[in-house]
Each structure stands twice: as structure tokens, then as C-alpha cells.
């Protein structure tokens, strides 16, 4: 009876943690979409809203950390249950970083004052953001459903994002070479493209956390990388 | 007697965690210095070594996380003791991110193939790195000694690093405008300057963790920022 009581209490704690992670994930996804939206439409009001909304994500991360730690201390879960809790903490840290990266893009909206914005660039950024957002969504679904194959699909899909980022950098470099007046604006877009790529890296981290939760060990394969393709003069790096 | 035994076991666990964090901190400090060294001397061998050494830091972070979680589960520490353990986990996460940022600079060494490297730029980067490295060192000492005033001094010192970063960005922008052949090289240095600034942000995070460990609550003041000073065309942002 005491055991059943403990098991029930633990399940409740875990369910609450999963709910908080899912709430945080929803906020992070929205921040990704809105920061790019603000950037493309040069909507400083929306940019400011993205910046302000970040503190909500930060608070959720602290809350998840606190509850996770209290759950471990109170319920003393072992093995697989412990990994569930550590998994929630890890995912929350990645989501908090995603929020920071979106906030950084939101801050740049006000600084991008150029009227020059080639359609090809905008389309590239949009495509990259769509991909990354769907990676974040898929990996959060995989986390909630304990779906290892789905998580591994995200893990492998990061390569495409890195390749688009490299091609965007090449293009931005061309515009900068063509006309020095493009430089300020292009630098901001480079940092934004890099931020979106990093959001993709965090989706990959979450996929690795799902692997750890299910398999009980760290993933050992090297993650695939698509951004090292001969763009030596200004490769985005990693 | 049983209580004493538990207290002793807990102290041993905590001591081991602190030792691991300090080992990790030493490695991270070395990575900061060596990545800049590699960059300035264009020493690709050293750059590669920085990249390779990052996995050691990553492993330590995982180890600290695992031990922290096991300690919480086994010893069920409460209040102040729990905060000690959570503090170690948080510091390890910041140190892991510092390692990533140094690794990113190490990767850029091979891409920077320009012979053009104005002394003023190099001095600026060196000055910024010195400041940031001493912040990391001071805050790790403050963490080990539970020295809140020392941690708060680091927390406030971040402003100067941000200001140097802004001034470096302005200078890099000038070089890019002057001659398009400088653009590729300058972009890499911008990303490096931004990385060093971010390392400073992680030192500030660690200062906040020390506050949390000692005061038992999150710091509520807004952290000081020195990088918003009217550099609208290519501000480094945050």
C-alpha cells in the first residue's frame, strides 16, 4: 500500500514535469516563428514581444529544475524513472537556450534598418526556420511519446539545416562584397542564420536525451554535420 | 550514528562534486586561453587540439550530472544541501557551454587565412579574453569559497566586456567597409568576439548560481549590460 502510494505520487510528479516541458516547448516554438516573422516584416513591436516573452521560458526552466530535484529527493526513483526526470531537466535546458536564441533575433529587428532585402535571402531564412521549427516540434512529440525512431529521424535531419545555413552565408557574403552598404544588415542576418542553425542543434540535443531516456546510455555516434562544405572564407562553423 | 554516517557520506559526495567542477573549470579556462592563442598565432595544430579537448569537458559535465542526481536520490538532502548539488549541476552546464564556445573559436583558426591582422584588433581581442578569463577564474574561486561579494563583483564586471565587444564590432565593420577582401576574415573575428562575450555571460550565470546557493533564491536584479550603446548598424546584440 505504501509502495503503491509512492508510485502514484511519483507518477503525478512525473506527469506534471512532462506537462511543464510541453508548455515550455509550445512557447519556444512560438518564439521561433515570431522572431523570424518580426525580422522579415521588420515588425519591431513583435520583436519586442519576443524579447519580453523570454522571461516566461526562463521561469519555466527554473520551475522544472526545482520540481525535478524535489521529486528525486522525495521519491528516490531508480534507473529508468530517474532517467525520466533527468531527461525533463535536460530538455528544459535546451528549450531555454532556444528561447535565448529567438530573443537574440528579436533584439536584432530594431537594428536592421536597411530597405535592401533580396527575396532569395528571405526565402532561405524562411525555409531554414520552417525546417528547424518542425524539427523542434517532432523531437518534442518524440520526447512525449517515447518514440526513439522519431527522435533519431530528427537527429539525422540536422544535416540539411546546416547545409542551408552554409549556402545562406555564402550568399550574404556576396551581397557584402558587392556593396559595403549591405554589410551591417547582412551581418545581422548572418547572426540570425547562425541562431536558427543553433536551434537545430538543440533539437538534436533533445533527440540525444530521448535516446538516453529510452536506452539508458549516452548516444555514441558522431552527429552528422552538413556545414563543413568548403566554405572556408566565412563558414558558419559550429 | 546512522545520521552521522549519512552526513559523512553526503559530505564525501559533495566534496567529490566540487572537485569535479573545479577540474572542469581548469579545463575550460585553458580552452579559453588556447583558443585565442591559436587564433592570434594562426596555429591550426593548437586549434585542432582545442576542438579535440572539448569532449573531455563534455564528459565531465555528464559525470557531474549523474553523480549529482545519484547523490540527491541516495542522501535525500534538504534545503541548503540540495542547493549545493543543484549549484554544481548548473555550474557544470555553464562550463560545458564555455567549452563549446572555445571549441567554435578553435574551428575558425583553419578558416582565417588572411595576412591582414591589424594590431589594434588583436590587442582588443586579447584584452577582452584576459578580462573574461579572469572573470571565469574569479567566479569559480567565489563558487569554491562560497564568497558572495566576490561573485557579485564578477556579476557587475560583465559590463566592461560587453563594451569592448561593441567597440571591436565597430572596428571590424570599418575594415570590412574599407576593403571587401577583409570581409571573410572580419566575420570570423566577429563571431569570435561574440563567443568571448558569451563566455563572459556564462561567468555571470555562475555568479547568479553562487547567489542562489548562498541566499536560497534567484537573483532578481537585472544584470548590467554594456553592449547597447548606439551601435545600431551592427551591434553584437545579446
UniProtKB/TrEMBL annotation, chains A, B:
<dbReference type="GO" id="GO:0005737">
    <property type="term" value="C:cytoplasm"/>
</dbReference>
<feature type="domain" description="PhoU">
    <location>
        <begin position="125"/>
        <end position="210"/>
    </location>
</feature>
<dbReference type="GO" id="GO:0045936">
    <property type="term" value="P:negative regulation of phosphate metabolic process"/>
</dbReference>
<dbReference type="InterPro" id="IPR026022">
    <property type="entry name" value="PhoU_dom"/>
</dbReference>
<dbReference type="GO" id="GO:0006817">
    <property type="term" value="P:phosphate ion transport"/>
</dbReference>
<dbReference type="GO" id="GO:0030643">
    <property type="term" value="P:intracellular phosphate ion homeostasis"/>
</dbReference>
<keyword id="KW-0813">Transport</keyword>
<keyword id="KW-0963">Cytoplasm</keyword>
<dbReference type="InterPro" id="IPR038078">
    <property type="entry name" value="PhoU-like_sf"/>
</dbReference>
<dbReference type="Pfam" id="PF01895">
    <property type="entry name" value="PhoU"/>
</dbReference>
<comment type="function">
    <text>Plays a role in the regulation of phosphate uptake.</text>
</comment>
<comment type="similarity">
    <text>Belongs to the PhoU family.</text>
</comment>
<keyword id="KW-0592">Phosphate transport</keyword>
<dbReference type="InterPro" id="IPR028366">
    <property type="entry name" value="PhoU"/>
</dbReference>
<comment type="subunit">
    <text>Homodimer.</text>
</comment>
<feature type="domain" description="PhoU">
    <location>
        <begin position="21"/>
        <end position="109"/>
    </location>
</feature>
<protein>
    <recommendedName>
        <fullName>Phosphate-specific transport system accessory protein PhoU</fullName>
    </recommendedName>
</protein>
